[in-house]
Sequence to fold (443 residues):
Amino acid sequence: MPLLPHRLFWRPQRGTPLAPQCPNHKAVSCLDSNADRSPVSLHDLLPFDPAAPIDSCSLTHFQRNDMDYRKPNERIYSFLNRSGHSEYEQTRSVLNSWFSDIPETYQEALKTSFCAGDRQHLGAFFEIYCHALLKKQGFSVDLQQVVDQRYGNPIDFLIRVGDTPLFYLEATVALDSDKSFTSHEQVNQLWKALNELKEPSFQIILEIHHEANHLPFRKICNEIHQWLKTLDPDDRSRKKDLLDPDDRPRCSWKQDGWHIDFIAVPLPPEERNHQEGETVLYTFSSHGKWSEPQNALSRKLNEKAKKYGILHFPYIIAVDILALDSMECDLNEVFFGQDLILIDPNSGAMTQTRSPFHPNRPSRENGFWVGQGGRLRNQQVSAVLLVDELMPWSFARKTPVLWHNPWAEKPLNLDVWQAPQRTLNEEKSNWLRHEEQSDWRLP
Fold:
């Protein structure tokens, strides 16, 4: 077994929050305001009056002029359907275009999931996204193919060029528990609300100490705005070289189970009073969720690895990473097992290794591709396609990356996939970058 790479953190791109409100961390809409809501017209995902019940069959046309934030506990689908902001009108058009490319035989089930609660909605959205991504690369796509009758589980996509099958792809979403998912959405809605302040002299950092459920966005934004007005950016700027980061101005919010610190960062004089900038620099958590073995990403990969039986072509598992415990995880730990430091009690010498190569370590510390004793696992999975925090309003800013299994039974040819890829250099124990080969990006 070759020496394996040790640290490779999957860091989400900042700038688009996970769950923005109506009006960014690491816009899409699917509503055509001129479409009717007929039960047999499946080409539009969000064509109806949001005030009408979901099972209504009335034909309703309406002008969307609701500019309010996404409400607490409001479903993503409902928010997308009512927002009057132009960015969501554009994204509604894009999603409806993608949806219309899916064969009608499969549209009704997808539409039902897309219009349901957030977990089902995000699963359906990611499936629609993956179908569009495959079509953009010029592939023919067959949906819901049962590849092993003994298992009877249909895989999402069989990808072809002409009549020649190339590979399978299964699309899935790595999510937190319901409680964590809700709190994460609240934080990102707060991110979006704060960015609307367009503070002229400061940016802020959010440090999350404890999470709960509902956040009063407007009240927090008003208090932060009033607090920033009491600060002198020039005074803070003159002292910045002498200040420890912990000495920067802070404002704490402690209410209803939440504890958030807002840290003020003065803008350079030449960057002040520009309305196009964002108020929030970044958000981080101080209560360490990201280091546990078998995070949501690992669990989802293991769940999908052997679900479909014997596969005749290369197999890709595509994952939209939305779980907090997976967003900044070490991908090498996910793939090859937990990193360990062994200390000799006599000499104090330290040796770096991985859990699968050390006896008596728990199986939950296995990697997706390497298990206990260095045994290779899940060789039927040819590659893993990962994208972080892909939401219906952020797809244009996200880059999915294909990570190849170095020991796959059926390797996927690098020339097949057009978007960015990574392959393991076993000799040097690092990942090689392979950038896009064509214009694969979605609008």
